[in-house]
Amino acid sequence: MRFIGFSAFPITPTFADGQLDGAAFRKVLDPILAAAVDSIGLLGSTGAYPYLSTDVRKEAVKTALDHIDGAVPAVVGIGAIRTDMSVELAQHAAEAGANGLLMAPMSYQVLSEPEVYDHFAAVAEATDLPLCIYNNPGTTQFRFSVDLIRKLAKIPTITAVKMPLPARENFADELKRLRDATPNGFQIGYSGDWGCAMALLAGADCWHSAVGGILPSQCRALADAVVNGDTARTAAISQAIAPIWDLTKSHGSYRVSYAIARGIGIADVSPILPIKPLTAEIEQQLIEAVEHLNKVISNG
After folding, report:
1. What pLDDT band is residue 201 in, cutting at 50, 70 and 90?
2. Using an 8 Å Cβ cutoff, are 154 and 123 in contact?
3. Which of 51, 110, 115, 141 has the fewest Cβ atoms nearer than 10 Å?
4. How far, in Å, CA of 278 to CA of 154, rounded?
């Protein structure tokens, strides 16, 4: 598969004891499938992969892939604190029928560039699936240099990178540096929902969307408006969705996604402790923002 277009990253609903709530998970996946996204990103940051046991992660992958049933490419997050654990998760994802892998360099001890290179090389060799580098310094405390991405991109199965928003959202310069450093066809995508419309306009290959995992049709409408060059619709949807982006920047996509899931009736779920749900007041703000967004999209 190629890491292109609009990729939606759903939450992974669990019970209070950390076990998978399979019924709720399928309810979360249904609107994503209906939105005809380009791919689904299972067990990303919004999918809470660091908080789940290995067994629950494997169960979540199997549950999701059985439900998706090949309708859309599925990418599985395999980040783990040890290399052998990521290898195990990669091999399980491949055996379960995943189409691609996504990995961030999780750590407790600060990792060096050679350590991260060796970690990715070992995992990349474990399967034939395409692997996307997840550059997420906000949670891993490790930032990939362009030179490290260049070296990793020489490994045949490492075919993409998921980047954070650049400083001052200067996508053009960063995309040029990355394109100059990587082979033709290497896919460059971004996360940070509030900036990804600009990333697509600048020529990024993929919008890796956290809120798109709970509002897939709405976020897809924005992505389509951007790609189709519909500036009026892009502006209208961007303005309507801005309050959701603002709350995401303040509280994080994980908490916001759970609040929206509850608020609009997708599933009665809560974040994994110690993370607490957002207040009823903020949840109501999100409900009202989603209702307004839906009106803007339907009137467009």
Report:
1. very high
2. no
3. 110
4. 43
CATH no. for 5-215: 3.20.20.70
Residue 169 is predicted with a pLDDT of 80
Which residue type occupies 68?
I
Q: How far apart are CA 122 and CA 241, in angstroms?
A: 41
The amino acid at 30: D
- Once rounded to an integer, what is the mean pLDDT over residues 47-64? 98
Which of 80, 72, 83 lies closest to 41 in space, CA to CA?
72
Per-residue pLDDT tens over the stretch 161-173: 999 999 888 999 9
Residues with a catalytic annotation lie at 134, 162
Per cent of the chain over pLDDT 90 is 98
Rg (CA), the chain: 18
pTM greater than 0.90:
yes
∠ CA 126-131-136, rounded to 5°: 120
User: Tokens 């801005």 belong to which residue?
Assistant: 242
Residue (of 142, 160, 234) closest to 196 by Cα position? 234
Cβ neighbours of 60 (radius 10 Å): 25
Whether residue 139 is annotated as binding a ligand: the answer is no
Q: At what angle do helices 83-96 and 54-68 cross, to 10 degrees?
A: 20
